[in-house]
Design brief:
The strands form two sheets. The protein has a six-stranded mixed β-sheet, sandwiched between helices. Strands 5-9-8 form a three-stranded antiparallel β-sheet. It is an alpha+beta fold and 435 residues long. The protein has a domain of 300 residues: Cytochrome p450 (Orthogonal Bundle). The N terminus is likely disordered. A hairpin with a 6-residue loop joins β2 and β3. The protein has 16 helices and nine strands. GO terms for molecular function: heme binding; iron ion binding; monooxygenase activity; oxidoreductase activity, acting on paired donors, with incorporation or reduction of molecular oxygen.
C-alpha cells in the first residue's frame, strides 16, 4: 500500500534514450569527478568542457517535456527515479529518515570504506543516537560553536602562515586548511599529522569506486588507530574534548565523516575567495562588514557566510543527493533510489540569479523561498556541520581579507559581467595578493 504520508503524482517512465542521456550527461561526469574524493585531472577536464552545463540543459528539457513530474529511469534490476521539481526536492528531504532514507546502497558501499558506522549510513535503530551525538558535538543550529574562541585563534594562526605577498594557489591554501581542520577536530597535537589525512585520502579514493573496489581493511584499521589516539588525548579547545565529555562508541566513524566533509568545506572557501577576488564590489563589501572585529574574535560574519553559501550554490560540493525509500511510496517499491541533481536546481535557467554571484539572496529571504536551493541539503538529514563549516570558512576569509586584497590570476573567467562557469576546477585557480 502506498504511504499516506506523502501524496503526489506517480513518476513517468523515461524512454531508453532519455535514460541513456541522463547516464552519460549527468551521472557519468559526476562519478568521474570523484564523489568521495575529487580527482584533480578529472576536475580539470570537467572545467574545460563545462560538463554541468549540458546536464542542466538536459534536465530542463526533461522537466518541460514531462511537466515537472519525476522520471522512472530504465535501470536494469533497479528502481531509480529522478526528481525534476522543487516541490519533489522539498518532499524528499523533509521525509528523512523515513520513508526517504539518506542511507542508500551506493552510500553504504562507498562510505563503508572508511566509516562503516557513520550516521549517514546507519539503520533506523542506530541513527537517532548517532545523530544526537553528532549534533551535540558540532553544536548544530548555533552560529557560534561553544569553542568558537579557540577555533578563531587557530584559524588566525593558520591564516597568518599563508603568503602575505605574491600569489596564492590551491595547493598552498589546502595545506593550511588541513592544518586548521586537524586542530579544530583533534587539537594542536594533530596539526602536522599529515599521515592521518593522507590515509583518509587513500581510503576515500577507493570509496569513489564504491562496491567496485575491495576494502583495504588493514589501512582502515591503521587510520582508525591513529585517529583514536588523537581522540583519546581529548585536547582542550578541540572537538575531541567535547567528544570525550559526550561519549559515543562509534565516535571514530563520525569523526572520519567530519574530516571528509571539511575537505569539501576547504574547496568552498577557496572558491568563495576566488569569487570575491573577481567581484571587486562584493570584496569591498565583505571587507567593510568586518568592522572592528579582530583576527581572533569570533563573529557571525553574516555577509561572508552568505558568500560561502552562494559559492556552494554555484558549484555544489555534493552534486548528487540520494535517497532510498524504506517502504512503498508513490515513487515506487521499498528500496527505490531517488536522485536529486543539485546543479540543475541551483542553476535552473529560470532563476534570475542562476549564473551570477548573488550573496544577498541568502540574506533577503529569496533563498528561503526556494526549497530546491540546498547547499547543505535540508530537512532532518541536513548537514549537522553546516554552522561550524560556515564559521570556519567565513572566519578564514575574514582573516585573509582583513589584511589583503585579492585579484584572480589564472583559471576560468569569474566576472560579474558574464555568466559564471557551470563547472569550476578549484585545483588550478591562482589568486594574486594586491594589497
Amino acid at each position: 500500500m502506498t504511504s499516506t504520508r506523502e501524496h503526489r503524482t506517480r513518476p513517468e517512465a523515461a524512454s531508453v534514450a532519455e535514460t541513456l542521456r541522463v547516464a552519460l550527461e549527468v551521472a557519468l561526469p559526476t562519478l568521474a569527478g570523484g564523489v568521495m574524493k575529487r580527482r584533480p585531472a578529472a576536475m580539470a577536464l570537467a572545467g574545460k568542457l563545462q560538463f554541468d552545463r549540458p546536464a542542466v540543459r538536459l534536465l530542463r528539457r526533461l522537466r518541460d517535456r514531462h511537466h515537472g513530474r519525476a522520471l522512472k529511469l530504465r535501470v536494469p534490476g533497479r528502481s531509480v527515479e529522478l526528481a525534476l521539481s522543487g516541490a519533489d526536492v522539498k518532499r524528499l528531504l523533509a521525509g528523512a529518515p523515513t520513508p526517504f532514507s539518506p542511507s542508500t546502497v551506493e552510500k553504504r558501499a562507498a562510505l563503508g570504506h572508511f566509516q562503516p558506522h557513520g550516521v549517514l549510513i546507519s539503520d533506523a535503530a542506530d541513527r537517532p543516537g548517532r545523530r544526537r551525538f553528532t549534533e551535540s558535538v558540532l553544536d548544530t543550529g548555533r552560529p557560534l560553536h561553544e569553542l568558537a574562541t579557540p577555533f578563531a585563534h587557530a584559524i588566525a594562526e593558520e591564516a597568518a602562515v599563508l603568503p602575505s605577498e605574491g600569489s596564492l594557489d590551491w595547493d598552498t591554501f589546502n595545506v593550511a586548511w588541513w592544518r586548521l581542520v586537524r586542530r579544530v577536530v583533534l587539537g594542536s597535537g594533530a596539526r602536522d599529522d599529515t599521515t592521518l589525512t593522507d590515509q583518509l585520502e587513500r581510503l576515500r579514493l577507493d570509496a569513489n569506486w564504491a562496491y567496485l573496489h575491495p576494502k583495504r581493511k588493514q589501512l582502515r584499521e591503521e587510520f582508525r588507530r591513529r585517529l583514536t589516539e588523537h581522540l583519546n588525548r581529548a585536547e582542550p579547545g578541540s572537538l575531541a574534548a567535547v567528544i570525550a565529555a559526550v561519549g559515543e562508541d562509534t565516535a571514530p566513524d563520525q569523526v572520519a565523516h567530519w574530516l571528509f566533509a571539511f575537505d569539501a568545506a576547504g574547496m568552498a572557501t577557496y572558491r568563495t575567495l576566488a569569487l570575491l577576488a573577481s567581484h571587486p564590489a562584493e570584496q569591498e563589501r565583505a571587507r567593510a562588514d568586518l568592522g572592528d572585529t579582530g583576527d581572533t574574535e569570533p563573529a557571525q560574519l553574516s555577509y561572508l557566510r552568505a558568500c560561502v553559501l552562494d559559492a556552494v550554490r554555484l558549484w555544489p560540493t555534493t552534486p548528487m543527493i540520494l535517497r532510498e525509500t524504506t517502504e512503498e511510496t508513490s515513487w515506487g517499491p521499498a528500496g527505490t533510489t531517488v536522485l536529486i541533481f543539485t546543479p540543475f536546481f541551483h542553476r535552473d535557467p529560470d532563476l534570475p540569479y542562476a549564473d551570477r554571484f548573488e550573496p544577498d539572496l541568502w540574506l533577503d529571504g529569496r533563498a528561503a523561498e526556494n526549497p530546491a536551493l540546498v547547499p547543505f541539503s535540508a530537512g532532518p538529514a541536513i548537514c549537522p556541520g553546516r554552522d561550524l563549516v560556515l564559521f570556519c570558512a567565513s572566519t578564514m576569509l575574514a582573516n585573509l581579507l582583513r589584511h589583503h586584497r585579492f585579484e584572480q590570476a589564472s583559471g576560468p573567467v569569474l566576472s560579474p559581467d558574464r555568466p559564471l562557469p557551470a563547472t569550476l576546477d578549484n585545483f588550478h585557480l591562482k589568486l594574486d595578493l594586491v594589497g
